[in-house]
Amino acid sequence: MQRRSRGINTGLILLLSQIFHVGINNIPPVTLATLALNIWFFLNPQKPLYSSCLSVEKCYQQKDWQRLLLSPLHHADDWHLYFNMASMLWKGINLERRLGSRWFAYVITAFSVLTGVVYLLLQFAVAEFMDEPDFKRSCAVGFSGVLFALKVLNNHYCPGGFVNILGFPVPNRFACWVELVAIHLFSPGTSFAGHLAGILVGLMYTQGPLKKIMEACAGSSGYQDYYPHGRPDHYEEAPRNYDTYTAGLSEEEQLERALQASLWDRGNTRNSPPPYGFHLSPEEMRRQRLHRFDSQ
Known about the structure:
Low-confidence stretches: 228-250, 258-278, 288-296
Strand order of the largest sheet: 1-4
Shape: globular
Helix content: 55-70%
Strand content: under 5%
Number of strands: 4
Structural class: mainly alpha
Distance between the termini: 10 Å
């Protein structure tokens, strides 16, 4: 099995400290399990990134469909893991408390697979339309697409109001689109198609037929014990020290910090990989193969 490169994983340490600040008992079970699973795969990757990332060439042409399951659970580095899982912690507490644990687990599983499928369709369509086969080889990895889908759900259940993105007030219903553009502009190494796929899956659930399809499938499989309008259990109480895990920063303020950090990194390190990326270009995959995942 391939191991991560040597060195202190500062992002992982920071993530663990935030989880313990919130309190494990204050984190709903599915959210906690998702965090634990992603951390476990980071520390014990089943395959190196170039064997688990998602691309049209690998999945469709070479029939390596297991990548649909592997790619959301693998991250390029500890900071990629940190920003994704910090966002998952915030979204998971809110959404799992509202939807109930069983239905939230169903949503996470469905979104993980569907985001990958939509990503492949987008990449295939762009490659065919532009007659550019490189899009079929473009490989993506990370949980970011699922998080964009969850962001759509969270905004759907909490409509109205504004969020602060890069110092500008943005209406809640447009926040996903503004974040999509902002992340792509300030961190070009990220996958625009991967994040867009997440938004589209979220819209399929909130505005399209996906939720009804999932309910029908759940009914036929006996998976009916869920709470689409929330439930009065112990997760309804907000964790007493919830805000401490971000030092009181909102998710949008965390995004701004991340983008600023990305700009700083790009100005000071020319050969570093994208810090919070979802996307791996063919050149980056080759570099990962040679340097980042050598056996120790």
